[in-house]
Amino acid sequence: MQHAGLRWDEIADGAWRVCDPARSASDAEAVIAYVERGGDGAFEVVWLCGTAGTQTFASLDDAERAVAARYAASRRDGSPLSTKPVPIAHRPPLSTT
Questions:
Q1: Burial code of 10-48, b = ≥16 C-beta within 10 A, e = fewer?
Q2: pLDDT tens, position by position, for the chain (97 residues)?
């Protein structure tokens, strides 16, 4: 399924993996978000690009527009859809003697 140029792969009834069509289907970084219909009928978007987090939308159309807008914004400003993790400083263990 295609919405706003993005690839929506249905992974279960009422659940989709939204992917960047410019990347290979086997590329893990192609996944922009997961969208799932909840028991209350609302749609939850789990963002995997840019700032990770979740958002809830009243309709699938609203969720589609939000996903498309985030994708378009990242393409417009040249920012990557996925970013490298922030490195964690490593220190030697504390001495017990």
A1: eeeeeebbbbbeebeeeeeebbbbbbebeeeeebbbebb
A2: 555 678 999 999 999 999 988 888 788 888 889 999 999 999 999 998 777 789 999 999 999 999 988 888 776 655 555 455 567 777 777 776 6
Distances (CA, A) of 81 to 23, 28, 29, 89: 11, 12, 8, 25
7's enclosing H/E stretch is: strand 6-12
Q: What are phi and psi of 35, to 5 degrees?
A: -125, 130
- Closest by Cα among 79, 77, 70 to 45: 70
